[in-house]
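Q: I'm writing up a methods section and want to include an example of the input and output format. Could you take the sequence below and give the corresponding predicted structure tokens, formatted cleanly so I can copy it straight into the document?
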Amino acid sequence: MFTGYTATSHSDLMTLQYRIFLSAINKTKTMTTRIYFSMVAAMLTLCTCTVKTASNIKKIEWLVGTWEHKTSKGSIYETWRKADGNELVGKSYVIKNKDTILFESIRLVNEQGKLFYIPAVKDQNEGTPIRFEGKRISETYLVFENKMHDFPQVISYKKISEDSLKAEISGLRNGKEERRYFPMRRIK
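A: Here is the clean output for your methods example:
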């Protein structure tokens, strides 16, 4: 710190001690300042992540409600609700003879700033949830992908209007490209 400095008098010793004291204070101030700015940076990072998480969930809230896809064999329903500020939960089901038959439970969850579509299908993968990562998330279009999954590898939702959407599953099946469309109308 003050190497090579030798105090020759009492006043020189006092000056040396004062300089050492000031140096220690400056180091303490510098350390305190560094800690303070590190804490501020961490807080800003956390706030940014929270805003991004909230904005991703906000972008997909148009899914909330009950949607119907009519087929020649009956209707398939998909119902979405907001679970908390970080997640939507959904289910796909049919109604046969007044019985509700659930065939898929779905979570749309934001983890570490990324949105994931996590379906668990009763008769597939032993009911184990499969994760699809959000690749495109906007107020009108959602695309989720899992290239390692057998079929589908891509799941998407396109908002047509407030009461209309088109869901699509696609990918390779037995070496051939396959797409299935599910036009849906909001009923609740």
